Amino acid sequence: MRLLIAGGGGFRVPLIYRALASGRFAGMVSELVLYDVDPARLQAVTAVLHSMPGGPGAWVPVHATTNLPQALAGTGMVFAAIRPGGTAGRVADERVAQDLGLLGQETTGAGGISYALRTIPHMLNLARLMKEHCPEAWLVNFTNPAGMVTEALLPVMGRKVVGICDSAGGLVQRAARAAGAPLLEGRLDGVGYYGLNHLGWLYRLEYNGQDLLPRLLADPLALATFEEGRLFPQPFLAELGALPNEYLYYYYQRDAAREAMRAMARTRGETIHSQQEELYPRLAGAGADAFRLWEEARRSREEGYLAEARTQGGQRDESDLAGGGYERVALAAMRALSGAGDTQLILNTRNSPAPVPDTAANQTAARPATPGPAIPGLPADAVVEVPCTVTADGALPLPQQAPPEPQLGLLRQVKEVERLTVRAAVEGDRKAALAAFAGHPLVDSEDLAHALLGRYEREFPELRDLWRPGVR
User: Fold this and answer.
1) CB 3.0-4.6 Å disulfide test: which of 17, 157, 458, 464 passes with 161?
2) Which residue numbers belong to the known binding site for Mn(2+)?
3) pLDDT value, residue 82
């Protein structure tokens, strides 16, 4: 299989390559194509790949290019992880919100809306070019904000697109270890999880027919052994009856998160931007030392993840620092989609599979009934993040328990914001963008919505072009 990584100069690309070169994904890909708009970043990442340690047979052929149509020709799988505007764009996404007294985070709240408005047009262009140059290829989307981007892509790609994120799957694995419930690779039969990307809850964790989650939530010592268990007070978790995704820290501890961010000398985006501005030129000329430099930077970056939630001290788990999360999810999804065997993963996909078209070819055959929504209470055509069975036909969402209030209320509110954001980006609807900012629970103000959009338009002139007919 020929795999294309769109955003091939991205910092995490070596993780994908490392997983392809050894272990259970070795041999899955015959050629790896790296596409990026920045040739200097491609050169740096290629240097890291060439300097990676490995035994015989650990090399996967790599081709780097800045020509997207050429990269797409003959491709069977596209993995998208692009960042329009680079890390400098992330800095502005976060800083504009923070300067207005709001939470400054790249995928959550105001920063996430700005990021989506800038990114969706680029991803739609990628999808249209795929339909032209490799119409049978799958699109595995890791481009953030993953839920909104995937929802925007569905009308173009249909079942041929799935969104991935390692956050929910990581929560399940960490909770299972803490509860003493070893999970079988590729199986989520006893797992209950519902949500949107970066907004979800683990509500059931069965092992040998017994739900171990209530006991885990009542055990402060067990909760203290993993990231999400430390983010929230134990009495709060016991009353909630579920384990929130780590990004819900920004909702449940909003004031603490905002003040911790404001107290930091630099935003998370500024720290990463500074690191990469210094690192990438060094990587390109580092020769055999490139991988070591990259690995040191990767660990440093992991240590700073969600630092605002650890203001009282404490370090991330070694298993988190070691890496190996998102690339395993991505490659497991790709392997199942390519027909190499079914698996179960938490993915971003349509809440209810689209009905089978009523074409002449199937009018005489019995057609199975379309399943109901995986998350009751959310629209059937909305993209949600839930456990899925992944096959060569795509991702089938598994039915989940109806979320209680106020979880369902929060999901509905944020989903409406996501859909307004997608409409704004796809249709050039500035009023929808304003409504999205105003309606987000971390903004909740029409005055702030106008201030946010005005400042983002000054930072990103391409946003103003979205509202001009004939420019998009």
Assistant:
1) 157
2) 165, 198
3) 98
